[in-house]
Amino acid sequence: MSTPVLAAGNHFIRPSLFAEAVRTAAGDAPLDIRELQFPWPHTPFGPVGEVIEASGSEDEMIEALQGVEICVTEHGPLTERILAHCPDLKLFCTSRGGPVNANLHAATRHGVAVCNAPGRNATATAEHTLTLLLAAARGVGDTHTDLRRGTWRGDYYDYDNCGIEIDGATVGLIGFGAIGSRVAKVLTAMGAHVLVHDPYVRPEALAGIAEQVTLDDLLRRSRIVSLHARVTDETKGMIGRAQIAAMPRGSVLVNCARGALLDYDAACDALESGQLAGAGFDVFPEEPLPAGSRLLTVPGVVLTPHIAGGSQEVAHKAARIVAEEVGRYLRGEPLTHCANPEVLDRRTATAD
After folding, report:
1. What is the DSSP letter of 334?
2. Among 69, 201, 238, 350, which is least packed by CB within 10 angstroms?
3. Where are the domains of the chain?
4. Which of 182, 306, 320, 328 is catalytic?
5. Is 287 considered catalytic here?
6. Is there a contact between 271 and 279 (Cβ–Cβ < 8 Å)?
């Protein structure tokens, strides 16, 4: 008998890509794969029911999940209402770094295992961070804009307008996970002295790469600061007016992590005053960026529309990670990235 699977993709990780990855991971196991297309990123994701980052609607998911045992998706929602109407669902795999589009507590109550895909975009995000870091350090944003407007600004060669080199610079990374550690290795290879503030990092992980310091020490010593922390109650708004003021005048600030980590009004004030010589931002407090945002006119900033984690390789990697969980599930093996393993423990106890 075939196992019913829903491949709920979008324009980044297409349903067919999910389906192909699942078939490969499942081997000879018979599958009945249905495909569903969501509109992201052409239509921004947002709240659906009680989950905060999802695409599509509860009604679409309820209809598509009828009789389905396994769902693989990127932004498809999993809410209390969906779970209540889809009793056959047993495994929900979201190809996100965290299961932000799933109501984990409700899934646990309904006996649905939820898996995610940590590290799926670590390489892409690290590379994009370096792109913005280098561009902000050398004033690429403003010089590019001026040249496109037909203005050759030779005064950017003035000493006070020149950018800074990475070789010999002190660069501070706030967070040393899968992304921050990759950024650190490249910066070290380029000749930077890398400081890290991360209360959870193991000292041995920093050996030969970076120096662990307090946040105050990092801000005081770093000419370039890049954010790589997760958003928690402790980290929300962790870089504000006081923290930016503690950095050396003419510093560079980069954020490819989450908009909630940074006070952007304070960053704009610092760019206008010269406290920050440059900044590179891929994430924002409100997305899409509002038309009247100060970030669109403030000098020295390089902006990208939350695309740091977007590469063709990420799409394939993310699909493969969740598909491998499907393969493990079908073979009765332990799941590697299950966010609510108590569901699996409960199933095992019931089987015994």
Report:
1. P
2. 350
3. 3-120+311-351, 122-303
4. 306
5. yes
6. yes
